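ARCHIVE CARD
CATEGORY: sequence design from structure
SOURCE FIELD: tokenized fold
FIELD CONTENT:
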């Protein structure tokens, strides 16, 4: 699926170039637990536990929207689990953190090649010649 969610901020560093702070907390939690995965409630509790140290909180709906966006962007997957109240999504990452970063680089470079092929070719040549 083609992503329309990411906005790449060139003035930020690391994962903050594509994620908000609480997104990073959620993703690092999911990368840490891997295939085990977690429901939105567990992710929400973890994010708020970390944010509480800064005097911040995030709503559960913000976490759910983010997790579902990551599923739509093929970054996370989920399995359904039955429980109290019906079916629940258990989210797990399709990539580890390094794999995600590689996926991000491929996605951005591919889009640049599609939209600005000649200029991207030239920019990559210049970058690679200085390494």
């Amino acid at each position: 699926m083609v992503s329309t969610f990411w906005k790449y901020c060139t003035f930020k560093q690391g994962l903050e170039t594509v994620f908000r702070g609480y997104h990073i907390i959620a993703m690092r939690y999911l990368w840490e637990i891997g295939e085990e995965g977690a429901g939105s409630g567990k992710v929400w509790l973890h994010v708020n536990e970390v944010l509480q140290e800064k005097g911040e909180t995030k709503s559960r709906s913000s976490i759910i929207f983010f997790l579902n966006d990551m599923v739509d962007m093929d970054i996370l997957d989920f399995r359904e689990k039955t429980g109290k109240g019906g079916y629940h999504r258990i989210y797990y990452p399709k990539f580890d953190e390094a794999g995600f970063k590689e996926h991000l680089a491929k996605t951005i470079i591919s889009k640049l090649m599609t939209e600005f092929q000649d200029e991207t070719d030239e920019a990559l040549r210049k970058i690679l010649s200085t390494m």
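CARD ANNOTATION: The chain is about 55% helix and 15% strand. The mean pLDDT is 92.
SHELF: design records, drawer C
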